[in-house]
Specification:
This protein has 2 helices and 7 strands, in the order H-E-E-E-E-E-H-E-E. It has a single domain, classed as Fimbrial-type adhesion domain (Immunoglobulin-like), CATH 2.60.40.1090. It has helices spanning 2-24, 142-146, and strands at residues 42-45, 67-77, 89-93, 114-119, 132-135, 149-157, 174-178. The radius of gyration is 25 Å and the shape is globular. The protein has a 4-stranded antiparallel sheet. A 3-stranded antiparallel sheet has the order 5-3-7, with no helix packed on it. The chain is α+β, with helices and mostly antiparallel strands. Helix content is 16%, strand content 24%.
Length: 180
C-alpha cells in the first residue's frame, strides 16, 4: 500500500510539474518603443532588403571601404509643420563587429567582415553606429524635412584588407528619426 501511495504521489508530482512547464510557454513579451515629441516623422526605405551576393576575402582589398555597394534612399513623412530641434535627424543603428570602430555591422560580431553604410555623396566615409545620415538645422520645419530624400549606400566592408572567410552574415540596419 505504501508503495502504491508513493507511486501515486510521484505521478501527481510529475503531472503537476508538467502542468507548470506547459504554462511556462503561455506568456509572450513584445518590445515596444515610441516617442512623444513636437516633431515625429515616419521613416520609409526605398528598398527593405539588399542582397549583396558573395565575394572572396581577397576581393575586400582595402580596409573600411565599401564593395559591391547598393543604394537605399531614406524618406520622411508625417512630420507635420512643427520645427525640428538642433540635433534632429536620421540616425543609424546596427550591430557592430569587433574591431571595426562601430562602423562595420554583422550578425556575427566576431567575424572579420560585415556591411558598411555611407552617405551616397560620401561613399569613402563609413558611418558609425549612432551617427546621422542627415541632421536638421534648428528650426527646419517638418514639411521641409519631408520634401527631401536622404540617399545612402550599403556594401561589404572589413576593418582590415583581405579578411578571413566566414559563414554568411545578415544584419538589420535601422534608420530612425530622432528629435531630441
Amino acid at each position: 500500500m505504501k508503495k502504491q501511495i508513493i507511486k501515486m504521489s510521484m505521478l501527481a508530482m510529475m503531472v503537476m510539474g508538467g502542468v507548470n512547464a506547459a504554462h511556462a510557454d503561455t506568456k509572450g513579451t513584445v518590445q515596444v518603443t515610441g516617442v512623444v515629441n513636437t516633431l515625429t516623422c515616419q521613416v520609409s526605405l526605398s528598398r527593405p532588403t539588399i542582397d549583396l551576393g558573395g565575394m572572396i576575402p581577397s576581393a575586400l582589398n582595402a580596409a573600411n571601404t565599401l564593395f559591391n555597394a547598393q543604394d537605399v534612399t531614406v524618406s520622411l513623412s508625417g512630420c507635420g509643420n512643427a520645427a525640428a530641434q538642433a540635433g534632429a535627424g536620421i540616425q543609424l543603428d546596427a550591430n557592430p563587429i569587433t574591431g571595426s570602430s562601430n562602423k562595420i555591422f554583422g550578425s556575427d560580431t566576431s567575424a572579420t567582415w560585415g556591411f558598411g553604410v555611407a552617405k551616397k555623396d560620401a561613399p569613402a566615409t563609413l558611418l558609425a553606429k549612432g551617427e546621422f545620415l542627415f541632421s536638421a538645422v534648428a528650426g527646419d520645419l517638418g514639411t521641409a524635412l519631408e520634401a527631401k530624400t536622404y540617399p545612402a549606400t550599403i556594401g561589404f566592408a572589413a576593418p582590415t584588407a583581405s579578411p578571413t572567410a566566414s559563414a554568411a552574415q545578415t544584419t538589420g540596419i535601422s534608420f530612425s528619426f530622432v528629435n531630441p
